[in-house]
UniProtKB/TrEMBL annotation:
This is protein-N(pi)-phosphohistidine--D-fructose phosphotransferase. It holds the Pfam family PTS_IIB. It comes from Klebsiella pneumoniae. It is an enzyme of class 2 (transferase). GO terms for cellular component: plasma membrane. Keywords: Kinase, Phosphoprotein, Phosphotransferase system, Sugar transport, Transferase, Transport. It catalyses: D-fructose(out) + N(pros)-phospho-L-histidyl-[protein] = D-fructose 1-phosphate(in) + L-histidyl-[protein].
Length: 93
């Protein structure tokens, strides 16, 4: 998946999460660097961390102790509603 897919996935996840009544903050990492970086407070407050990526995520150690789900970017692009539903199930389990 290319750089455009990063932003497509971001939009799809934001839309699906909002539709399901969830708040999200999305940090993107691509060829132009990190955009919209997550703060330590935001990470601490998160119920779950989704890593929708096809390459190594920089700073993954920041999420130690959190529920972390890793999926391919394609999953976020093709099935964002199912993905958000699955994340909700994990949080509530």
């Amino acid at each position: 998946m290319g750089i455009a897919h990063t932003y497509i996935a971001q939009k799809k996840i934001e839309t699906a999460a909002k539709k399901a009544g969830h708040n999200v903050k999305i940090e993107t990492q691509g060829t132009i660097g990190i955009e919209n970086p997550l703060t330590a407070d935001e990470i601490a407050a998160a119920d779950i961390v989704l890593l929708a990526a096809d390459v190594k995520v920089t700073g993954e150690e920041r999420f130690a102790g959190k529920k972390v789900v890793k999926v391919a970017t394609e999953t976020a692009v093709k099935s964002p509603n199912k993905l958000i539903e699955k994340l909700s199930e994990i949080v509530n389990s």
